[in-house]
Specification:
The protein contains seven helices and twelve strands. With about 210 residues, it is of the alpha/beta class. The protein has one domain: TIM Barrel (Alpha-Beta Barrel). Helix 3 links the parallel strand 4 and strand 5. It is globular, with a radius of gyration of 16 Å.
């Protein structure tokens, strides 16, 4: 019998009470807080903590970091400000090992895909999940999704996803989860209609897992 999977959904760059209202209304699997100061979606730690208190517990909060001190990441995890750490900078295997020593929470490591060699690097990561993106700075840039078919582990697919193209992306790459930010925004803010359209598209497009 074939195994059918519907990708999980992460809405990233959540930074206002209205964003959390949308998450509670549509219940994605994950909600992302960006803790990278240079990002326009940056949210301070104390504001994220307040937003997390209003977030439906069925939605897991992911903290996005780039070059952050490992103790700071662990502290936010242990305080319950976030449930999962997403490492989006140059964090290496030593960094991941140290974070595991400090906390037993889930770790996602991002890789920026330009060729098959980047897929090979992602394959070897000791993180619980890897995330494949088309750019380093959250610019919403897609990559060749067919490259992801060579990855033999569960991964998050990010970069340039929209309600219009996400089904094509799922068909070509077969991700464990899809991650969207700019694709559900109008004028730099999260848009309820786009959120609804994105979630409806993903939830209406299950795919068959390859056998073996």
């Amino acid at each position: 019998m074939s195994l059918i999977r519907t990708p999980k959904i992460k809405l990233c760059g959540m930074r206002t009470p209205y964003d959390i209202e949308l998450a509670n209304r549509y219940l994605p699997d994950y909600c992302g807080f960006v803790f990278v100061p240079k990002s326009r979606r940056y949210v301070p730690h104390d504001e994220a903590a307040a937003l997390k208190k209003s977030l439906d517990p069925r939605v897991l909060a992911v903290g996005v970091f780039a070059g952050e001190i490992v103790d700071t990441v662990a502290r936010l995890l242990e305080r319950g400000v976030i449930d999962i750490a997403q490492l989006h900078g140059g964090e290496d295997e030593e960094y991941i090992a140290r974070l595991r020593e400090l906390t037993g929470k889930t770790i996602i490591k991002a890789f920026f895909v330009r060729s098959e060699s980047d897929i090979e690097l992602a394959e070897k990561s000791s993180a619980d999940y890897v995330l494949l993106d088309g750019s380093r700075g959250g610019e919403g840039r897609a990559f060749d999704w067919q490259l992801a078919r060579g990855l033999r582990r569960d991964f998050f697919l990010a970069g340039g996803l929209t309600p219009e193209n996400v089904c094509d992306a799922i068909k070509l790459s077969r991700p464990y989860a899809v991650d969207v930010s700019s694709g559900i925004e109008r004028g730099g803010a999260k848009d309820a209609r786009l959120v609804e359209e994105f979630l409806s598209a993903v939830r209406g497009f299950p795919y068959e897992l390859p056998k073996g």
